[in-house]
Design goal:
CATH class of one domain: Alpha Beta
Order of helices and strands: HHHEEEHH
Number of helices: 5
Helix content: 40-55%
Strand order of the largest sheet: 1-3-2
CATH architecture of one domain: 2-Layer Sandwich
Number of strands: 3
Radius of gyration: 20 Å
Distance between the termini: 13 Å
Largest sheet: 3 strands, mixed
Strand content: 5-15%
CATH topology of one domain: Zincin-like
């Protein structure tokens, strides 16, 4: 899946003068490596949340779930530190679903998409889409990662959903 380009208009480049001065100074390689890491993290977190994951949700729903998941599912970036989760799916009061992806745990859009697919399998199993008759919620395990969920993830891998992601 190809990602849309993020909008970088209006970015402030004033910090780059500081980096140029340090980079061209006699600072050691260790300092230069630290600068590169900080810039990479800054760039990633500064741009990743500008990306609308709903586009990927709709594409994945069509390509791998055959459009069976609800189109009115919302997909947002959010802080999940209170749950200690990378991603989460919740049912809203109106019956629609909300998938939240925490950007702190997703350095790249590929990582975010892997979590999105994971949450989409939770949505599929929670809505009982293409689930064997007679399978109870208890058989799915206390945390929702039982055999039905695992089969969903394996099915996605067999269909190539993770091909460009891992």
């Amino acid at each position: 899946m190809r990602h849309r380009e993020t909008d970088n208009e209006g970015d402030d480049n004033s910090g780059y003068d500081f980096v140029d001065r340090i980079w061209n100074s006699s600072s050691g390689d260790s300092m230069k490596l630290q600068i590169l890491i900080v810039l990479a993290l800054s760039f990633t977190f500064g741009n990743v949340t500008k990306y609308d994951l709903k586009t990927d949700y709709l594409n994945y729903n069509t390509d791998y779930f055959y459009g069976a998941l609800p189109a009115n599912t919302s997909v947002i970036w959010g802080d999940l530190s209170q749950y200690d989760d990378m991603g989460r799916i919740d049912e809203r009061g109106n019956g629609s679903m909300l998938i939240t992806i925490d950007p702190r745990y997703h350095m790249t859009l590929k990582q975010a998409d892997m979590s999105l697919l994971h949450e989409m399998c939770h949505e599929k199993t929670g809505l009982r889409i293409n689930i064997s008759v007679g399978l109870t919620q208890e058989e799915e395990g206390f945390d929702g990662h039982g055999p039905v969920f695992q089969n969903c993830m394996i099915d996605l891998a067999k269909k190539g959903a993770f091909k460009d992601l891992w």
